[in-house]
Automatic annotation (TrEMBL):
Family from the record: Belongs to the thioesterase PaaI family.
Domain Thioesterase: 67-144
Pfam families per record: 4HBT (PF03061)
Keywords: Hydrolase
Listed name of the protein: PaaI family thioesterase
Native source species: Bradyrhizobium diversitatis
InterPro entries with a match to the protein in the record: ACOT13, HotDog_dom_sf, PAAI_dom, Thioestr_dom
Amino acid sequence: MTAKSYGTVDVERQKQMSGLEFVKGLADGTLPLNTIAQTLGYDVVEAERGRVVVAIVPTGAHLNPAGTVHGGLTATLLDSCMGLAIQSALDKGTGQTTLEFKVSLLRPITPETGLITAEGKVLNCGRRIGAADGRVTDAKGRLLAHGTTTCLVFPT
C-alpha cells in the first residue's frame, strides 16, 4: 500500500481513467485524497464498482458545542462515499457532482464511539443522473446515520 497524499488530480489525468480506476487510486494511495479528507482526517478504504467505504476515528476536533461529533462531519462522510460510489460506476471522460443530498442522524457520535465507516452504494446511474444511498455504522455494526444523494452526471 502506498502512503496517502492529499491534493487534487489534474483534470486531464482524470479523463484518462474510468471512474472505478480513479476511486481505486484514492483507496490504494496511488492518487491523492482531496484536502477536506486531510482536514477532517478520513480515508477512502474500499472501492469497487458501485460501492465505496470511507472511515474515520472521530476526535475532540470534531465536536459541536453540545460535546458530540458535529453533524457536518457525518454529512461530509456520506456525501463523499455516495458521490464516489457514483463516480466508480462512470466511464472514462465522465464526471459527477452532487445536486442534493439528505442525511438523517440517528445516534450520537462521540470520540468514544471509535472507528466509524460510511458506505455508499449506487441505486441507479444513468447518462445524466446518478442516485446512491449511504449508511454510517460503528464497529459493532450499529446504524448511526443514513443518507441519499442525487448527482448530476456529465462529460468532462
